[in-house]
Amino acid sequence: MKESRDGARTARTSTKSSSADSYPLVLDIDDFKGDFSFDALFGNLVNELLPSYQEEDADSAESHSNITANDLLPNGSSRLPSDAGKSSPMFPEVDALLSLFKNSCTQLIDLRKQIDGKLHNLKKEVSVQDSKHRKTLGELEKGVDGLFNSFARLDSRISSVGQTAAKIGDHLQSADAQRETASQTIELIKYLMEFNSSPGDLMELSPLFSDDSRVAEAASIAQKLRSFAEEDIGRQVVTVPSVVGNATASRGLEVAVANLQDYCNELENRLLSRFDAASQKRDLSTMAECAKILSQFNRGTSAMQHYVGLRPMFDLEVVNEDARLVLGDQGSQPSPSNVARGLSSLYKEITDMVRKEAATITAVFPSPNDVMSILVQRVLEDRVPKLLEKLLDKPSLVNPPPMEEGGLILYLRLLAVAYEKTQELARDLRGVGCGDLDVEGLTESLFLPHKDIYIEYEQASLRQLYKTKLEELHAECQQSSESTGTIGRTKGASIASTHQQISVTVVTEFVRWNEEAISRCNLFAPQPAALAAIVRAVFTCLLDQVSIYITEGLERARDSLTEAAALRERFVIGTSVSRRVAAAAASAAEAAAAAGESSFRSFMVAVQRCGSSVAIVQQYFANSISRLLLPVEGAHAASCEEMATAMSSAEGAVHKGLQQCIETVMAEVERLLSAEQKATDYRSPDDGIAPDHRPTNACTRVVAYLSRVLEAAFTALEGLNKQSFLTELGNRLHKGLLNHWQKFTFNPSGGLRLKRDITEYGEFVRSFNAPPVDEKFELLGIMANVFIVAPESLSSLFEGTPSIRKDAQRFIQLRDDYKSAKLASRLSSLWAGSN
């Protein structure tokens, strides 16, 4: 295109030079092919006409550049020369360009028509070719369909031929197998005839049966012959022979079976000997070869058992060494901690041995799991039971071993240690591998003789521990009593010290025994129902022990109160005795009082320790026992009832002892009042001296005694027990004081002294926190006014306080002016109205 355009440009240039009006332009279709550019085409058209204009334009630009500043107008325009409008037109080539453009348009239209004609022809030609192509495709499709049909028929034929060939192959394979079977059968019959020759004659056999290099083949053939012969004999036994030939054949096969059995035994022994030799040399390949052949004899059971039986871990020396390692030196008493360490060490050694044997077994035997099962079973049925037999010597329940030799508790502790460690061994062996062997069940069976009567031994052990502890405490108390003797005893005040006191430490030890027993129950009976039953039985032992111990302790403390009471009764004397006898009796009475006070304190300490002991048992039940009983319906409630029943005997002893304490206190109060209260305390002479407003000496001594002795009660008692005791004591004190004051006569100053005593007593009993007692002493203070007021004021006193009338009838007679003031007749109308 570039060449045509150059040619056209040359033609147009020459044409222009000859004539300015004619612009011959020739456009060719080739100009529009390839990399067509409209700008290039347009430039080639007009460049021949525009150069003269470009030169003139350049000259005009130079003249414009020569214009000075004076030629510029104020608005920025320039002044043109005066002859500027007279020049030629600015574009003189316009006409030539218009002619050129028209000529170009005409040529372009012609070219378009040519192209349209060519496109029309091409369309027709394409349509014709498309029709031919479609026709060809239709013919090809028909040909392809026919080809596909041919292929389908061919495939069907090939399939049919293949099936036929497969059937032929199956028949050929079956025929070959039958031929092979027949050939093997012929060989087997020939070998069977050799074994059937004569009983016990194995010398005339084929070389196969004596060739060591063909032992595997010989073993396989011998097993087949043996199986066939035994099966045939079995059929002959079931079916009654109908002809003589059957009987003859049967007898002949029996000979063959016997010979085959002998040969198999001889071959098996030979292989076992080779296996043993290889085992000593650690020749695993030979061992594996022999084991594979031996697996054809009873699935290799004899080889497996033979291998396991020859393991060094089952030698007698090794088993005896086990006992020495676990039990220590012969004759020494085994310690559970030492036994635990010994069992851990031994069982670890056994596990390592089994793990080492497992590697060999895996490399040698075709069925390693079966061999591992036999090995582990041998461990748990031979080596472990022999050790347990020496370790767990079941003691007699009728004549148990003494505690000096460990007692029943040693057997139970060793049993628990052995059971726990053997369970760990079973889990370790299961991890190493033991085939389908029930290791856990086998381990449980080792301890069944011990677990069947375990609870009986546990209860007997707890009874033995309890009995031994009481004997130990009794011996200590006896030794202490003998060493102390009577030296330093103050007038019989140490009666209580000769009795053994309740010890919270001892009860805590009872609980610790029971807790240890419960831990063994958890170990031996993990099932909730069975566990609840034995836990309840063991806990009942604790209840019995604590109940008996604290009840006996309370009874011993009561005995000291009884002895103190007997001392008081012994030194009660009459009034008509000599002064020396009275002084001796008074000294003995003081000693009895000291014994009573000591016994009181001792009993209060026993009550306090009894309460602490019961609290310890209750806390132990709530923390450890309760949750074990809940899975069984009714077990928890039954145990709670048993606990209440067991403690009821102790509660009865406490109640009786507290009554004795009140009697002891009141006896001493009465003694102090009788000894210290003087007649002049409440009937002082009218000598003009100011009355004494202090409490009487008897009141001071009684209050001091009560404060001292009841300090132990305030510490030991609590809750309702404390309230009940103090209320009863307050009522008894009130009654005792009333009876005591009935012995005296009161004048007004003595009434004031009595009122002061009542106030002192009232302030003391207010510490009892017993409102009924406080009310009684308040009424006593009001009633004391009957000795103070004038006779004429008594009526108004009773009318203002009607609640004291009943006691006032007795007390008013104690006024020293009762007869002189004729108070009986003066108050008779008041008493009649009251009645």
From TrEMBL:
Residues 95-211 form the Exocyst complex component Sec10 N-terminal domain. The keyword Coiled coil applies. Pfam families: Sec10_HB, Sec10_N. Residues 1-20, 56-87 are annotated as: Disordered. Residues 217-825 form the Exocyst complex component Sec10-like alpha-helical bundle domain. Residues 63-80 have a biased composition (Polar residues). Residues 10-20 have a biased composition (Low complexity). One of its GO terms (cellular component) is exocyst. GO terms for biological process: acceptance of pollen; exocytosis; Golgi to plasma membrane transport. Keywords: Coiled coil, Exocytosis, Transport. Belongs to the SEC10 family. PANTHER family: EXOCYST COMPLEX COMPONENT 5 (PTHR12100:SF0), SEC10 (PTHR12100). This is Exocyst complex component Sec10. It comes from Coffea canephora. The lineage of its organism: Eukaryota, Viridiplantae, Streptophyta, Embryophyta, Tracheophyta.
